[in-house]
Amino acid sequence: MANNWMLLLVLVIMIPVVLTTTVIPLLTRRIESFGVTIPEEGQNHPDIRALRKSYLWWNGGLGALLTASLMIITFRISSDNAWGIALAAHTVLYIIVSFGIYYKIHRAVKAIKEKEQWLKDAPQRIMVSTAFRTEKLTQPHYWFIPHLLLIMGTILVCVLGYDRFPELMPMKYDFNGEVTRSVAKSYTSVLWPVFVQAFLLIVFVFTNVVIGRSKQVAEASDPEGSLHRNLRFRRIWSAYLIIFGFMIMAAIGMIPVGMLLDWSGNVSALATILVVGLMVVSSIALSVKTGQGGSRLKSESGGNPQTTVASAADHDRHWKLGVIYFNPNDPALFVEKRFGIGWTMNMARPVVWIIVVLIILVAVGLPLIIE
Questions:
Q1: CB within 8 A of 325, min separation 6: which ones?
Q2: Which of 73, 102, 122 is the last residue of a domain?
Q3: Is 230 helix (H, G, I), strand (E, B) or coil?
Q4: Structural domain of residue 61, as residue ranges?
Q5: What is the mean pLDDT of residues 34-52?
Q6: Is the pLDDT at 122 greater than 80, yes or no?
Q7: CA distances from 27 to 46, 299, 322, 338, 362 (A)
């Protein structure tokens, strides 16, 4: 039974991670390749196409090899702790080597760009819509009211059923559903799912704000169409965040309910894994459907945005390693990723570091409070 749970986790964790990172080059904007700004026609350059194909083979092959290795270990290992170490080691190894593959190709693309002198003398500009911010960029925040009601419901379950919880609260189970760690009953130990739900809700609301306030990107070749696609992209991912955020919080809320109904620890774990698995599969499907910034969406008439020339479009010097944005002259806190789906932060802004530190402190401190 334990091996079956381990295998399920391998499938839920490794396969989506490998698949997502492998297809990223196919999902980025056509004005970017492996974190480097290039002209759209550069995507058809034979060397760029060869590098893209090389990345798919090397990264996909690496992921398949490590996934197969982890599956073999899963059937040969009996210790939960040893398996956890193996999972972490395989995941970290994949991330490191995968980034190495990416960075090698990133440098190769930069070399091709320099050799071909792309964008060197050509007139460059980015288009900024003065009407873009007047649009509804995300789903409204009142969509999070059900999440708040869910937290209140979990509080009621924990408080009203407090006397029915065991004197030793189970905090960790092994893959056979046996309790491996427990703590004395207290309101803190009983209400820990509420703390987790509250933290997640803050993260979800913050992410929705990031989606709405991130810097707009309009492609000079099709400014109106690209802005409209980007608008749809933001709304789609905002809705995804709200829907699956609620499902994750609901799965966590089932934990105290399961304790009161004397469910096996595996029931709540299975519910959480299924929700996470569905979330990951859906995110991959959405990524393929939308592309980064909505680049794979079909254009629909979105009006006539007013545009003004802002600055040169080639900002490679501000992207460290092609993935870390560092531009002290840019007031924007959040920008689109160059390699991947979603958004990242402008690490040159002090407030960004404050946000990062706060998130880390809460993430580290929450388990200590629960203890």
A1: 318, 319, 335, 344, 345, 346, 347, 348
A2: 122
A3: helix
A4: 1-122
A5: 91
A6: no
A7: 19, 16, 16, 10, 33
The answer, yes or no, to whether residue 370 has pLDDT greater than 70, is no
Are residue 104 and residue 129 in the same domain, yes or no? Answer: no
Domains: count for the chain: 2
| Mean pLDDT of the region 165-185 | 75
Residue 219 shares a structural domain with residue 229: yes
Residues 96 and 129 in one domain: no
pLDDT at 173: 66
Contacts (Cβ under 8 Å, ≥6 apart) of 48: 33, 38, 42, 109, 112
Query: Quick one: 36 and 161 in the same domain?
Result: no
Look at residue 127 and tell me whether its pLDDT is greater than 70: no
Same domain for 277 and 289? yes
Q: Which residues of 297-329 are buried (b: 16+ CB within 10 A; e: fewer)?
A: beeeebeebebeeeeebbeeebbeebbebebee
Q: How far is it, in rounded angstroms, from Cα 280 to Cα 287?
A: 10
Question: pLDDT digits over 303-320, tens only?
Answer: 444 443 333 467 888 999
